[in-house]
Amino acid sequence: MAFDVLLLKESNIRGIDTNSLLRMYHLAQGVVTHADSKVQRDRADRTAERVRAELRKRNVPFATGH
After folding, report:
1. Does a structural domain hold residue 8?
2. How many domains is the chain built from?
3. Domain that holds residue 40
4. Pure H helices in 7-37
5. Alpha-carbon dihedral sign for residues 24, 29, 33, 35
6. At a CB cut-off of 8 Å and minimum separation 6, what does 55 contact?
7. Residue 41: exposure state from Cβ atoms within 10 A (0-12, 13-18, ≥19)
């Protein structure tokens, strides 16, 4: 399931509820941290950035872990 997050497209983000976005963000961060493949880490990092941007647009406070 965690790798499904990597397939998230920017156009689909707007229709997703905030709680789901937060879960997706944390899943993507887990992939960034634990994936063996650099390609998977890079995709997860881009996905996490897209989700972060959407959460900022919605003024949702969240811990980034950075």
Report:
1. yes
2. 1
3. 2-57
4. 10-13, 18-34
5. positive
6. 18, 21, 22, 25, 62
7. middle
Residue 49 lies inside a defined structural domain of this protein:
yes
Q: Is 38 a domain residue?
A: yes
3-state SS assignment for residue 17: coil
User: pLDDT digit string (tens) for 1-16?
Assistant: 445 656 666 667 888 8
Residues written for the chain: 66
pLDDT number for residue 1: 43
Q: What single DSSP character describes residue 26?
A: H
Asked, for residue 66, whether it belongs to a domain, the answer is no
pLDDT at 22: 92
